[in-house]
Structure formats: structure tokens, C-alpha cells
Amino acid sequence: MAESDKEDRTEEATGRRLQQAHDRGQIPRSRELNTAAMLVAASFVLWSFGGHFAQGMARMMEESFRVSREEAFYPDAMVRHFADAVWEMVKLFGPLLALTVVVALASPIGLGGWNFSTEAIEPKFSKINPWNGLKRLFGMQGLIELVKSVFKVLLIGIVSWRLLRHYWDKMLGLGDLPLMSALATSTDMLGFSLLVLSLSLVLIAAVDVPVQLWTYKRDLRMTKQEVKDESKETEGSPQVKQKIRQMQMEFAVRRMMEAVPKADVVVTNPTHYAVALQYQQGGVAAAPRVVAKGADLVAAQIRNAAAGAGVPLLPAPPLARALYYSTELDQEIPTGLYMAVAQVLAYVYQLRAARQTGAVPPPEPRDLPIPPDLAHD
User: Which SS3 state, helix, strand or coil, does residue 315 take?
Assistant: First the structure.
């Protein structure tokens, strides 16, 4: 990645970018953490059970040098003797090796999670390209690795020197001890020394883990254009979303226009708002419901559709505003408007009867009761 390209990548990686990297097997890893965890676990077990390991090794050595005449002259017996020695070694050091394997798997999982990707192990020319290798060697990552290596050598050297001075007299006195005591003492010194050295590597891992996490996030940073392109891919472009919203609005308006002829009455502002009400006596709905509503241009379309279908239009501005703001489409009106709508429906039924009989139309209702909490200016 060119330096100028890195400078342009100022945005943090999105969730989709992180998931794609995880699917490719690109997850944060720290070799220092893995090494330190394995060595600490192995050295702690070796130090804690040093006597057990010493006795087991002494027993194996004793059995290995004890060869009977039958085993010396018969190959099959010698093979069985060797197999028994190997089995004893497996039983002695098997748990230690198993613990090391478990820790080796658990430490990277704890840092970056579990991932198995065939893409990560596919052969790629870029991985063996000498030029890319030189750029990594002399780049920032190479400098970080060099500093870690120098610090690691110095730290291990200092700790080893202090341990050597601490155990110098004991090491010189091992030759004067019986075999079992010498083995037990040697195993104890070896286990403790490895434990101290391993714990010193924890300091390096404590520095390396944040560095690896920072490097991982830095490498996955995105440019502003990449974030915009990804947003378009996942959510659609603004033009497409606007077109979808427009189509949804047109569909909703068309559906409302189809419901207007079935309404009982259209309450108007009379020019800015229009709300179509329908009440089915004896139906499932317990109260009248709004089957269409709109403002300005949509309100004009509702009024035209109602006039063409012979649905009564009732100018009642306070009620029209209250219905428009308090009730959604296909919902029943609130209880606070029952009294006002009941007067409107009574007027509608009287108007129908008058049209059928040729009688004088009833007067339009006035001063409809609107609760203050539902009133809108």
C-alpha cells in the first residue's frame, strides 16, 4: 500500500469491512502472546511437578539400560522394550504437551477469535514476491519487529544472567548429590528458570498486543469514498432510495383514492386538509376509521374523488385538523372525537334519507365538540 494511499485512509473500518477481513482470515494475531502463553504454561507445570518428572525420567533411564539376555538376542523383544519406553515417555510428558497445544490454540482465539479460511492459505505470488518482502522488511512493520527482537534479546539476556548467578552454586554442587536428588534439583531449577524467562516475555507480549491491534485497525482503514460506496451497496444510492419512497407514496395515495368512494363522509378544512371516514354498522370495527387523509394537493385529490363518487363533503376545519393529526390510515378515531363524529354521521344519514325522499337537506352541523388535547390550530 502506497504512503499516499495510507494517508487517504482516514475512516475507521465499518462492520462490513471487518467481517470481510475476518472471512478472509485477516484477524489480529500476536506471535509474542502465543509464545509467552505456551512457555508460561509449560514452565509452570514443569516447575510445579518437577519431582514427578524427575522420578519418571530416572525410571525410564533405569529401564532403558536394563536389557535382558532375551531382549539382546531377539529383535522382537527389543522392539517391545523400545515400545514400552516410548509409551512411558508419552504418559509422562503427554499431559504437558496437550496443555501446550490447548494454550497455543486458546491464546490467538482470545485475541482475534476463531477463524478458518481457505483463502488465507491459498498460494499468492505477492507473499513470495521479493520486492514486497523487501518493502515489509524496511517498512514500519519491519522496524517494529526489529525493535521487538532487540528488546527481547536484551531482556532474555539480562534475566538469564541473573538466574545463572542465582543458581551458580547449586549447579556446581549437583555432582555431589545422589542421582534422584540431582534430577529433582535440576528439574526444579530448570522449571523455575523457564517460568521466570517466560514471565519476562509477557512484558513483550503486553506491548506487542496493542501494537498488533493498532496495526490491524490501521490496515483496514477506509477512504471516505470507500465508505460512501459501501453505503450505496448496502443501503442503496440516495437516488434509488428517493425513487423507492416516491413509488411508495404514489402507491399509498392510489390505495387511498380507491378507498374514498367507499367512505361515508369526507371532512375538509375546507382547502388544506381532507379526511375520509367510514363506519360499518354491525361490523368488526367498533368506531369509525380513517380510510384516506391528506393535505394540500392530496387533499384536493381526495375531494375530487369524493365528489365524483357522490360522497358527502363536510367543511369542519377543527374536526378535519384533529382527525388528520391524531389518527393514522386504517385506524379507528380516538374516543375523544366520538361525539363530534357521531354528529357528522347523523348528518350524513339524514342527508341520504333526504336525497332518497326529495326532502329538504338537513343543516350542516356546527360547533362540533373537539377536546383541547386533540385540537390543532
Answer: strand
- For residue 244, the Cα-to-chain-centroid distance in whole angstroms is 29
Distances (CA, A) of 164 to 5, 185, 188: 51, 15, 14
3-state secondary structure 231-291: HHHHHCCHHHHHHHHHHHHHHHHHHHHHHHHHCCEEEECCCCEEEEEECCCCCCCCCCEEE
What pLDDT score was predicted for residue 294? 87
% pLDDT > 90, the chain:
2
C-alpha cell at 307: 365528489
Amino acid at 1: M
Per DSSP, 334 falls in state: P
Within the chain, residue ranges assigned H as helices are: 3-8, 15-23, 31-48, 50-65, 69-73, 75-112, 118-121, 125-128, 130-137, 140-172, 179-219, 224-235, 238-259, 297-309, 317-326, 338-357
Q: How many Cβ atoms from other residues are within 10 Å of residue 258's Cβ? A: 12
Cis peptide before 315 (omega within 30 of 0): no
**Which pTM does this prediction carry?**
0.43
More confidently predicted of 140 and 35: 35
CA 246 to chain centre: 33
pLDDT of residue 122: 55
Q: What is the chain's alpha carbon radius of gyration, rounded to the nearest angstrom? A: 43
Measure Cα distances from 7 to 134, 208, 213, 216, 228 in Å: 21, 24, 19, 16, 18
